[in-house]
Amino acid sequence: MTLSKRIPILLLRLLALGAAVSATVVMFTSHDSAEVFNMKFEAKYTNSPTFKYFILMNAIASVYTLILIFFPSKSSYGHFILVSDLIMALLLDSSISACVAIGDVGKNGNSHAGWLPICGQVPKFCDHVRGALIAGFVAAVAYFIILLYSLHNVMNLFALNT
Amino acid sequence: MTLSKRIPILLLRLLALGAAVSATVVMFTSHDSAEVFNMKFEAKYTNSPTFKYFILMNAIASVYTLILIFFPSKSSYGHFILVSDLIMALLLDSSISACVAIGDVGKNGNSHAGWLPICGQVPKFCDHVRGALIAGFVAAVAYFIILLYSLHNVMNLFALNT
């Protein structure tokens, strides 16, 4: 791959790295507490397996992206990197979707199931989750564009060579 | 693409079609009701935006797959189909992840947020959701393998031509 084709990928990976690290840190530090009927109610990421999954996936994305930025990119690894980028995009997509679903119940509740919204009691926690979701979304979009760009390059090279 | 390379993709698309249609139908027909404290409680897919999203995505996947099975595959559309397969895999992945997150709250509840599990009251509904999730998962895996196989073919052709 020529240098002019590597620079956009590098920039996208830097964006993904910043976003995934932010998502991990913001979700990890999300914390708020409230007193309801004299019972102290503490909201933090460990309260839900979905938030733990979100942190794990964004931490994996951060480490993976960091390694790839410093990885000496050999074209012989192209196939492997394309597949691992695809897996990374799917994992980020999955973690955000799961968190949005739980975040929606936290914000709006679900009257049919009798689940009350909690964001009124712990607004700081919900703000953090929202911030983390936005950062995670940016990382996922960066990976989606990396995939599109890589596919485009591969297909164009293929078209040129046939 | 030669016929021998097209057959595995066709078989995977048939699998994805069957799975996505099953997921749509099973989720759409999920229904159960219970009486709690003389209040009738009805569980169906319309109770949650996540379940509606799941049905929409699986219906889109069904129609998309059906079109591609009958689509006269010209290699000039290869790039476009690879990208739309990628988007389909991401959408299916997203809909399953969101549903698993909500399904987990439905099954186990979340004591921190005060959300009680509902599967004890409406077991038939939860069984349907579980079945739909398994079918949706099969469709998503089929699309993941289609992507891997297409990428493998593209990269191999590229390697042969350089």
UniProtKB/TrEMBL annotation, chains A, B:
What topology in the membrane does the UniProt record assign?
A: Multi-pass membrane protein
* Record keywords: Cell membrane, Membrane, Signal, Transmembrane, Transmembrane helix
Chief localisation class? membrane
Q: Where is the Casparian strip membrane protein domain?
A: 9-142
Which InterPro entries does the record associate with it?
CASP/CASPL (IPR006459), CASP_dom (IPR006702), CASPL (IPR044173)
Q: Localized where? A: Cell membrane
Cleaved signal peptide residues: 1-23
Entry's transmembrane regions: 53-71, 80-103, 132-151
NCBIfam families assigned = A_tha_TIGR01569
Q: How does it assemble?
A: Homodimer and heterodimers.
Q: Which family does it belong to?
A: Belongs to the Casparian strip membrane proteins (CASP) family.
Q: What is this protein called?
A: CASP-like protein
Q: What species was this sequence derived from?
A: Rehmannia glutinosa (Chinese foxglove)
